[in-house]
Structures are given as C-alpha cells and as structure tokens.
C-alpha cells in the first residue's frame, strides 16, 4: 500500500502478502482515501461495497475475527513505520528487500528476484533515487545482492545482517 499527501509525496506504510485483506478505511463516502494498493505480483481481488462486506461478516459470524485481524495488522504497521523513519538508508533498503522476499511464496523459485525498480524503492522509502542507488551498490558489493540490472538476493544472511535483522 502507498500512502500519500496532498503535495504528492508517497510512502509505503506496510507490505501485505498472499491471503491478507487490503481495503479502504474511509468511514464516510466523502472521506479522503487512506492509501492506494499496488500489487507487486499477480493477485486476485474483489471489490465489495461496505454493505456487502458487512453482510458477509454477519452471515459468517466473523465480526469479532475481522476486528482481531485489523488490530493485528495495525499493530504490525506502527513498528514498520517507525523503523522506516529511524533507520539509516542502508538498513531501510535492505529491510524492504528482505521483507519483500520473505513474503513471497516459499515454493516460488523466483522469490529472490525483487519486483521493485530503484525508483519504486525510493518512493516506498521516501528516499532520493540516488540514495537508493548508492545503497543497492553497497549491498551488491558486500554480496547481499547479485550483480545485474535486476534486484536479486544473492545471500539472505548477509542481507539480514545489513538490514540489522536478528536471525537464528
């Protein structure tokens, strides 16, 4: 999802994966949209009116489950946003690449290929494209990413170290 302001600045507030629900949170029809959704890969989507969605929840006795789901997803979003603000650019770029790879289907042989351009990474992280290009060069130099025009994870352990993620 990409959130934006009236000046056109955009930032990635969260990533979602297969099976996650993504929706608009505007309470009234005249409210401003909270974010745009952009798929990185093939996906299936459905568009429901609020009335249809409410009816679905009621018919499946799922109101409580849906509220629990929303609370869990919102509590993931705040730490994600904090890390994006407080971490240095290298860690932010490495974390977004690592998280994107980790959310991909583990059986997908192409999951190490990251479907972001440098421009898309810069937009998502609120960084200058030149800053992202410098960080990608550094991640390639240390062996975390492979060489070439595409972003391909060469070594996820090195990438996790560069992202400052604790692994077991």
Automatic annotation (TrEMBL):
InterPro entries: cNMP-bd_dom, cNMP-bd_dom_sf, HTH_CRP, RmlC-like_jellyroll, WH_DNA-bd_sf. It holds the Pfam family HTH_Crp_2. CDD domains: CAP_ED (cd00038). GO terms for molecular function: DNA binding; kinase activity. One of its GO terms (biological process) is regulation of DNA-templated transcription. This is cAMP-binding domain of CRP or a regulatory subunit of cAMP-dependent protein kinases. It comes from Prauserella marina. SUPFAM superfamilies: cAMP-binding domain-like (SSF51206), Winged helix' DNA-binding domain (SSF46785). Keywords: DNA-binding, Kinase, Transcription, Transcription regulation, Transferase.
């Amino acid at each position: 999802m990409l959130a934006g302001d009236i000046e056109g600045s955009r930032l990635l507030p969260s990533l979602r994966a297969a099976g996650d629900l993504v929706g608009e949170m505007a309470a009234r029809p005249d409210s401003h949209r909270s974010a745009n959704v952009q798929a990185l890969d093939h996906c299936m989507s459905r568009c429901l009116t609020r009335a249809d969605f409410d009816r679905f929840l009621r018919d499946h006795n799922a109101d409580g489950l849906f509220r629990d789901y929303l609370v869990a997803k919102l509590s993931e979003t705040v730490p994600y946003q904090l890390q994006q603000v407080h971490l240095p650019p290298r860690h932010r770029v490495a974390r977004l690449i690592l998280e994107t790879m980790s959310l991909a289907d583990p059986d997908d042989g192409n999951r190490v290929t990251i479907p972001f351009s440098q421009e898309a990474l810069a937009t998502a992280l609120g960084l200058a494209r030149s800053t992202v290009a410098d960080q990608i060069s550094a991640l390639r130099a240390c062996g975390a990413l492979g060489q070439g025009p595409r972003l391909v994870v060469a070594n996820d352990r090195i990438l996790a170290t560069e992202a400052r993620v604790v692994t077991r």
